[in-house]
Structure formats: structure tokens, C-alpha cells
Design the sequence.
């Protein structure tokens, strides 16, 4: 029997950029990112580079007529909903692309690629001058600090100067400008979006890594893909900068250089949810079968599992309503779902700042007998004292878990198997067991229970 076709509709996005033989940046990064965001990626290759994670070895710019032929072939057939430009290399290419996109009835994101992350020059001096017309046709232009300085004469060193550079780009004709702060020093990265008279700053902690190859291409492609879906510009930028933070944090360790950003990280996170939920459910079943009632605290017990790429509470699976003690033993109130835990989930996420391999946690009752039983664990036991918690931390909602995790890791000097919170007035004393996988969490819980029962 012949099966009926079931075609899927997806908005089409276009990248006009150079090829990166290393796969981390350029057209390769753009297409991966567009597909990861649900758009169908098409491409116009402007140049061919021989590069890898260590740098650019050679580059060849295609003849303008070949670039134009690719562009015409795509736009004659596809309903392009958004486009982005990347490495254009030379003035004639910049001019030709500016002329072509002027007739495109879709938003264009201009990533003014001028220098590679390795420091290699990717645009000729006369090409920099030719960018004015292309910027004027942009729905959004996304320079880093170095590129913003070249285009505007303003060197972004803080939010105010970044806004000034963004305003100059808007004066050049761009609908909006996102001046990226990755090349500006400091522990916090601040990306400044200027649109009309408004300016919005998106902040996130700087990630201690050199594996940022392809970050500019990936961010611009993510914005273009979201615009192709019809997202509002600000929403597209906000979502894309958050996506970029995760892509850098979970960078790909490939090549002998620093590596590349993880273009498919959001897809991998979602794909990891089902196995994570199943792992939590398996641990919960084992707790019910063994009856862990002696370890269930008054506030109830929860088992939490984080996806490999989890950054938020909504990306952790836990028991809805927790596990409680009943006449028939320990029983979960309801099933396992994502976002069901707050306290234990936030603590687990906080520990992942120090050891990203940690993915599972459970909170248990704590008293003198449990403290003695913790000696049966196969790893160190750390603790933090709420009495030492600064008032500034207490005043900031949700910050106690981050502070407690930091103190615990500092006191242990390594990844602990358990963290003791001795509580305070109105706060029950708790011990949280930690593990990289569900089986280890189960075994550690049973080891404490065995010692307690002995």
C-alpha cells in the first residue's frame, strides 16, 4: 500500500555568508541554528575559508556573479521570511548583497563580520566602508564592540557607550541595533538593543570559556529564524540571547582549539526530558518499594532530575506534591512532571554551577542519627550554616540556594555526595543527596537508610 505524503510547513530563512570548513561558524552554523529553531535554512555562499578551531588558514571570495546567481535561485523559488548576512569579505560583495536585499520583502539581520574570534581579518578595509548601505537596509544589525567601533567611531565600553553606538547605527538607517557585550570586560555580559528611542539591556553572567567560535553567526541566525516565524523583534532578541548563553555554556569540545558553540543545545535539552523524567520515576518507584519513610522530612521528600543542559526550574523533573509518609509507607502524592519542584530544584541547579555533571538530588530528614549514617556515603559531606547567611542574600528571593551551594562546595573542596543544611528558626534541618545519575542517587539514599536502620 502506498502511504500518503504528509508535508510539513516551515518558514524559510536565508543566510548570506561565508563557509567555515570547521563547521562552527559561517553558513554551517547558520543552517544548524535555523533548523534548530524550526525554520528551513537556505544559503548563499559568499566565500570559502580553510579554517578550524585554531584559526583561518586561507580564504577565497566567490565572484560576485556567482553569489548573485545563488541569491536569485533561492529567492525565485522560496518564500523567504527572513534573512541574515555574515561574512561578505570584500566591498563588491557587500554592495551586491545590499542591492539584492533591498528588494526583499522580509526582515534582514546584518551581522557585520569583520574579524574572526581568533583575530583573523575577514573583511577588507574598503568593505568596511561599503557597509553603510547594507546597514541602512537592516531590520537589525548585530555588531560586537570591535565592529560597532569600526562602523560608528564609538567604542562600546559600558551600557551608555553601547547605547550611543546603537543609536548611531539606527541613524545610519537600521531599524534596530544589538550591540553585543561579549568583547567588553567584566563578569556580566550586557547586550544593548536600541530600537527607535528605546534601549533594552539583556544581561547574563559571563561564562568562563574561550569556546565562543561561531557565537555571532549563531545569535544572528537565531534572531532571523524567530523573525521568520513572525516573532516581535524584542522577543526574538531576548530569546536568542538566552539561547546563546546556553550554547556557549555547553560548548562543543571539538578540534584542538577552544571548540565551538553548541548550535543544537536547545533541541538536545528538549530531547533529554523524557529520559530524565523516566529516571526520576525509576528512583521514586525504588523509594516506594524499599520504603524510605525513615528519611522523609516533615516538609516531604522530593526527587529532582535535571536535563543535561538544564538552566531553569522548568527544565527539572520532580514529584508533584512531593513524597510523604503514610500508613503504608512512603508514597508520592502525584506523578512526576517538569517544574514540580522549587526548593530542591533550585539547589540542584545552583550546584551545577560548580559541577555541571550533577543532575539528580533528593532532600532527606536530618538529625543526629542521620548525620552518623552519612558516614556510609561514598563521597564527602559538606554543609552550610544559615546563621552566616548575609542579610543581602536573605533579602533577595531565591538566592539562599546559590549562596548555600557555594559555601558547601568551598567547605568540601570537591563535589560533595551530600550537603547538610542545619536549618534555623522556622526552617527544618535537611540533608540533600547529590548524584550525576539516578542509579547513584538511589544507591546513596539506600546506603544512608541501611546505616540508619543498623
Sequence:
Amino acid at each position: 500500500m502506498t502511504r500518503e505524503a504528509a508535508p510539513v510547513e516551515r518558514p524559510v530563512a536565508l543566510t548570506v555568508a561565508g563557509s567555515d570548513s570547521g563547521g562552527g561558524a559561517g553558513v554551517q552554523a547558520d543552517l544548524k541554528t535555523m533548523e534548530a529553531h524550526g525554520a528551513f535554512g537556505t544559503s548563499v555562499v559568499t566565500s570559502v575559508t580553510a579554517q578550524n578551531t585554531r584559526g583561518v588558514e586561507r580564504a577565497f571570495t566567490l565572484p560576485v556573479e556567482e553569489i548573485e546567481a545563488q541569491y536569485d535561485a533561492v529567492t525565485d523559488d522560496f518564500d523567504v521570511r527572513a534573512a541574515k548576512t555574515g561574512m561578505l569579505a570584500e566591498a563588491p560583495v557587500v554592495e551586491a548583497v545590499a542591492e539584492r536585499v533591498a528588494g526583499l520583502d522580509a526582515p534582514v539581520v546584518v551581522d557585520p563580520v569583520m574579524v574572526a574570534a581568533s583575530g583573523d581579518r575577514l573583511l577588507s578595509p574598503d568593505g568596511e566602508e561599503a557597509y553603510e548601505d547594507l546597514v541602512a537596509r537592516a531590520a537589525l544589525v548585530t555588531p560586537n564592540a570591535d565592529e560597532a567601533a569600526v562602523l560608528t567611531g564609538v567604542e562600546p565600553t559600558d551600557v551608555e557607550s553601547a547605547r550611543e553606538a546603537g543609536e548611531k547605527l539606527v541613524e545610519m538607517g537600521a531599524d534596530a541595533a544589538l550591540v553585543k557585550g561579549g568583547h567588553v570586560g567584566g563578569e556580566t555580559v550586557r547586550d544593548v538593543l536600541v530600537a527607535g528611542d528605546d534601549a533594552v539591556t539583556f544581561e547574563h553572567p559571563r561564562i568562563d570559556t574561550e569556546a565562543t567560535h561561531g557565537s555571532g553567526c549563531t545569535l544572528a541566525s537565531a534572531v532571523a529564524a524567530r523573525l521568520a516565524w513572525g516573532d516581535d523583534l524584542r522577543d526574538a532578541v531576548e530569546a536568542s540571547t538566552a539561547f546563546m548563553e546556553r550554547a556557549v555554556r555547553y560548548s562543543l569540545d571539538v578540534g584542538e582549539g577552544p571548540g565551538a558553540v553548541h548550535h543544537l543545545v536547545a533541541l538536545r535539552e528538549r530531547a533529554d526530558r523524557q529520559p530524565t523524567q523516566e529516571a526520576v520515576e525509576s528512583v521514586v518507584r525504588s523509594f516506594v518499594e524499599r520504603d524510605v519513610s525513615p528519611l522523609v522530612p516533615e516538609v516531604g521528600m522530593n526527587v529532582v532530575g535535571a536535563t543535561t543542559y538544564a538552566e531553569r526550574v522548568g527544565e527539572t523533573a520532580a514529584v508533584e506534591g512531593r513524597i510523604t509518609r503514610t500508613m503504608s509507607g512512603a508514597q508520592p502524592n502525584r506523578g512526576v512532571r517538569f517544574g514540580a519542584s522549587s526548593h530542591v530544584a533550585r539547589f540542584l541547579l545552583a550546584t551545577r554551577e560548580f559541577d555541571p555533571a550533577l543532575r539528580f538530588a533528593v532532600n532527606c530528614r536530618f538529625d543526629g542519627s542521620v548525620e552518623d549514617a552519612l558516614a556510609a556515603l561514598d563521597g564527602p559531606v559538606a554543609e552550610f550554616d544559615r546563621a552566616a547567611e548575609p542579610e543581602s542574600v536573605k533579602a533577595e528571593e531565591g538566592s539562599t540556594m546559590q549562596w548555600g551551594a557555594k559555601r558547601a562546595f568551598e567547605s568540601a573542596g570537591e563535589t560533595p555526595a551530600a550537603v547538610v543544611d542545619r536549618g534555623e528558626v522556622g526552617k527544618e534541618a535537611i540533608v540533600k543527596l547529590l548524584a550525576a545519575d539516578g542509579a547513584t542517587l538511589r544507591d546513596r539514599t539506600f546506603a544512608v537508610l541501611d546505616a540508619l536502620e543498623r
In short: The mean pLDDT is 92. The two ends are 65 Å apart (CA to CA). Residues 272-453 form a domain with the L-fuculose-1-phosphate Aldolase fold (CATH 3.40.225.10). The first helix runs from residue 26 to 36.
